[in-house]
Amino acid sequence: MSFLRFAVRRLAEMAATLLCASFVIFGAMYLAPGNPAAFLLGGRSASPETLKAINAQYHLDDPFAEQYVHWLGQVLHGDFGRSITYRTDVSRLLADRLPSTLLLISMALVLVVVLGLLLGWIGAVRGGGADATILVTTTFAIGTPSFVAAVLLQGLFAVKLHWFPTGGGGDGPLDVLWHLALPAIALALYLIGMLARVTRASMLDVLGQEHVTVARSRGVSEGQVIRRHVFRNALGTVLTTGGLIVSTLLVCTVLVESAFSVGGIGQLLELSTTTKDFPTVQAISLIMVGLFMTVNLLVDLIHPLVDPRVCLGPGRSAA
């Protein structure tokens, strides 16, 4: 199977999966407790005419299939409906808050990739005391949930030492980065330990293979052996964790943003869930699924470039 056919097939699979996800996300509204109309009324009694107007505005009286088709058509045109809580377009809410979340996730992802690969590399190549120290450190990181890390970092570096702000989004590029530093570390800590462990195990596995021994016997320098024969072959296994890393970042950002009052879509999702703001919850859930699937698609497309055998299919060889 050529790379182009492989890419087209993965795009088609992504589109079908995203369509199924949209159906599940929209259908979950019917399983959630509470009534949007009752929340809009704030517990006050209302006349039948008022209830009818609310149901008509949000299409609550339409059959499920009609509601879903109407909602999906709006989503395809970039319209996620109107927020029940904030009484404004959901698209506008997302446009205001999504940049903060994407920046926070990007900062955390950079920390995960750089520190995770570096620690895994050092542990596999150097061994000894360095490897033991990295194993202990990564064990602590993996055992610390993001919300616990957020509380610890905030209490120590923001409240006690006053090195970082306790929360908020900041004003200006540098101030925004400064405000997001602790949340990014809290978000990345667990994944740094996980990626370091995966990188270390994968490189150790490749180090024991025959082609590495042959390369060394031919006089190839140790640096080239590690870079070209060990790390490159281990990278395929590391890439497969990309989807898990992104999914963890998307889930944990809700807790971290709430702890630091970042004001991104993670905190908005928590508030919207509490207030039964169904249009906003549906929009954020769909965006998170879309981001997760996009990153998985990129990982799947990059993987064959690292290991061309991936897109050949089962039972076939590169020859």
Topology of helices and strands:
Blueprint: H1 3-31, H2 36-41, H3 48-57, H4 64-76, H5 90-126, H6 128-142, H7 146-160, H8 173-207, H9 210-217, H10 222-239, H11 242-260, H12 265-274, H13 278-306
Helix pairs in contact: 1-4, 1-13, 5-6, 5-8, 5-11, 6-8, 7-8, 7-11, 8-10, 8-11, 9-10, 10-13, 11-12, 11-13, 12-13
Mean model confidence by pLDDT: 82
Q: What about the largest sheet?
A: none
**The CATH homology group name of one domain:** MetI-like
CATH class division of one domain: Mainly Alpha
CATH topology of one domain: MetI-like fold
Overall geometry comes to globular
> What is the helix fraction of residues, given as a range?
over 70%
How would you describe the oligomerization state of the chains in this entry?
A: single chain
Approximate strand percentage: under 5%
Number of helices: 13
Order of helices and strands: HHHHHHHHHHHHH
Reported CATH architecture of one domain: Orthogonal Bundle
Question: What is the count of β-strands?
Answer: 0
| Through-space gap between termini | 13 Å
Low-confidence segments, ≥5 residues, pLDDT <50?
312-319
Radius of gyration, CA atoms, in whole angstroms? 24 Å
The structure class reads mainly alpha
Descriptive account of the structure:
With 319 residues, the chain is an all-alpha fold. The protein has a domain at 101-312: MetI-like (MetI-like fold, Orthogonal Bundle), CATH 1.10.3720. The chain is 76% helix and 0% strand. It contains 13 helices and no strands. α12 (265-274) runs antiparallel to α13. The longest helix has 37 residues, at 90-126. The chain is globular and about 85 Å long. The relative contact order is 0.13.
